[in-house]
Design a protein that fits this description.
The protein folds into two domains: about 230 residues, Periplasmic binding protein-like II (D-Maltodextrin-Binding Protein, domain 2), CATH 3.40.190.10; about 140 residues, Periplasmic binding protein-like II (D-Maltodextrin-Binding Protein, domain 2, 3-Layer(aba) Sandwich). The protein has 19 helices and ten strands. Helix 1 runs antiparallel to helix 13, helix 11 packs parallel to helix 19 and helix 15 crosses helix 16. The chain is globular, with a radius of gyration of 21 Å. The N terminus is likely disordered. Strands 1, 2, 3, 4, 5, 6, 7, 8, 9 and 10 form a ten-stranded mixed β-sheet that branches. With about 425 residues, it is an alpha/beta fold. The two termini are about 20 Å apart.
């Protein structure tokens, strides 16, 4: 797989590439969706593939498996994360918050940015986890749908709440109770990812956009609208616009949302479905408006005064990247202490100021104001109560649903 080089990209492009990889796409083409997205993953290490190679399908195993916890003897923690997903100093050689953690606790963090794609990483750790072996990692960051899969497989450990007082107290309400990990027994949020409607003021030229219906129905926007090639975001936003709850929708609701978007395709309203490459279409004005990821919009707004966003009255979609301790991790307590550290407002603020995703930590705003007042007032980074109440998560899918829904969505997008 080709590796991207962050120093050759703008901040918006770095955020965009990072988001594309996070959704399981190793490139920016729609063709890659079937090969490497959550649904297409069934061919490259997904649930169906698990059964085929003798590994029990999700739901057939129970609990996590611990090892002899060497945390007290070995003051270390092995942390695997996504590229460009940690604060860095001006030299690019140091991670200030990680170094603060080490100074305070004496625990050294072996930090590795070796996650470029959910499915690729799953394929990397699957053999060890399936065999009941240590992966060599104490803490990993996975997107919610893959985190849910590992929990169902019994391949991550239940967290010890006594080591997580700040995390328990400060986790924002909107992230506390996902259907795939009720009460956050196995995971805590690293960062939230919001899906909104972005627009180019100059390209709109006075046309008002307030909803997905405006994107799909306003003839003045014909051929200048973008939808995402990520199923959960485009379908989720459409379900909300139709008055359906993405957390409880039925198969008929899904089909109705597909049909709604299909009309936009048939009449030429939708210019194209994109991965993160919508950013160039939006800034150039080829898209007057599109469904977009908030982490990108923060950077795009900083680069261009023409770019802005709206939150539809019907709400918006939220997904998460999550911290988990895999089975047989040898430094579980140290990993839990590191999770808890990032739920303290000060380090959480330092991280949020650098990466610009949704901070899941309550009480962080006052600390963030000391670093970056604009970021502290940005609802895409620190959602206010009204915005948080409008957030919705896409419900967990069975392996059958995942296959069927992704196939229908792929046909819609032409992937």
């Amino acid at each position: 797989m080709e590796q991207f080089e962050p120093d050759r990209l703008s901040p918006a492009q770095v955020a965009a590439v990072r988001r594309s990889f996070r959704n399981g796409r190793a490139s920016l083409t729609r063709r890659s969706l079937l090969r490497a997205s959550a649904g297409g993953a069934l061919a490259v290490g997904g649930v169906a593939g698990l059964s085929a190679c003798g590994i029990p399908a999700a739901g057939n195993t129970q609990g996590g498996v611990s090892a002899d916890d060497r945390s007290a003897k070995e003051k270390t923690v092995n942390f695997s994360n996504w590229t460009e997903y940690m604060d860095v100093d001006d030299s690019g050689k140091h991670h200030p918050t990680l170094e603060q953690f080490t100074r305070r606790t004496g625990i050294k963090v072996k930090y590795t940015e070796d996650i470029n794609d959910n499915n690729e990483f799953f394929g990397k750790i699957k053999p060890q986890l399936a065999a009941g072996q240590d992966t060599g990692r104490d803490l990993i960051v996975l997107t919610d749908w893959l985190a849910a899969r590992l929990i169902r497989l019994g391949w991550v450990q239940k967290l010890d709440a006594s080591n997580l007082p700040h995390a328990y107290a400060n986790l924002s309400a909107q992230f506390r109770d996902p259907d795939w990990d009720p009460g956050r027994a196995y995971s805590y949020v690293w960062q939230g990812i919001s899906t909104v409607i972005a627009y180019n003021k100059k390209a709109l030229d006075g046309v008002e956009v307030k909803s997905v219906s405006d994107l799909l129905d306003n003839p003045k926007l014909k051929g200048r609208v973008g939808f995402l090639s990520e199923m959960r975001d485009s379908i989720g936003m459409t379900l909300l616009d139709m008055g359906k709850d993405p957390a409880t929708f039925t198969a008929d609701d899904f089909d109705a949302a597909v049909a709604r978007i299909q009309k936009g395709v048939d009449k030429g309203q939708i210019r194209r479905f994109t991965g993160n490459d919508y950013t160039s279409d939006l800034t150039s004005g080829d898209f007057a408006a599109c469904i977009a990821w908030a982490g990108d919009v923060v950077q795009l707004k900083a680069d261009s005064p023409d770019i802005d966003f709206i939150i539809p009255d019907s709400g918006y979609m939220t997904s998460t990247d999550n911290l988990l301790v895999p089975n047989k991790a040898r430094h579980k307590t140290n990993a839990e202490r590191l999770i808890d550290f990032y739920y303290e407002p000060k380090p959480a603020a330092e991280l949020a100021a650098y990466i610009n995703y949704v901070c899941p930590v309550d009480g962080v705003k006052a600390e963030l104001e000391k670093i970056d007042k604009d970021a502290a007032e940005n609802p895409l980074i620190i959602p206010d109560k009204a915005m948080a109440e409008k957030s919705h998560a896409f419900r967990s899918l069975s392996s059958k649903e995942e296959t069927e829904f992704e196939e229908k969505f792929a046909k819609l997008t032409g992937a």
